[in-house]
Amino acid sequence: LARMAAGLTRALAGFADPAADHVLQWDIKRAADLRPLLPHVADAALRDLCRAVLDRFDRAVAPRLPDLPWQVVHGDLNPHNLLADPGDSDRIAGILDFGDMVLTPRICDLAVAASYRIETEDPVGSLAAFAGAYHAVLPLTAPEREVLFDLVAARMVTTVAITSWRAAKYPENAAYILRNVPSARAGLQAFARADRDHVTGALALACPDLTTPEEETT
User: Taking CA atoms, which of 2, 6, 63, 92 is between 20 and 30 Å from 137?
Assistant: First the structure.
């Protein structure tokens, strides 16, 4: 999935459309706009986790986004939008739902896909492995690597906040709307326990810089 996601992002690199910069509620770069939805998160502890992620997003991530590589991305590589080959379940045969395509920092597409693939027993290791597979196809820049962990967390908050708000509006369909909240909650809890130095080291090891100091100064 990570390799496919990187290949898809590369394939979309030259795509442009006048509507690409539309306002999309699910776009991670707009995570700060989720604050008014947090009162709909019924679990107080989960609500506090979401608020802490958004506080860090506002302080440490949002100011860095304008300087990252931007392009149009798929925007919603969640498990429900993927088709597996019935003869080879490890091969992705198709991608569904391009309705969330948007112009955004390209690293956001990796963050979306990774947010659904975090192993709660080893959140840092599973993120690093996923990012490393993506990096092998489409190398991450150092600034992209440095914000990835927080963007994945922001996507988890996006899932929790938007679905909680929608479930409150449409309680008769709440079970379907909230189907991804348990995994997002588990991911946020696992990320909250993660050591930041461990995150930085693991991602640097999995996604090494591809230029030497001498090349950077020439």
Answer: 63
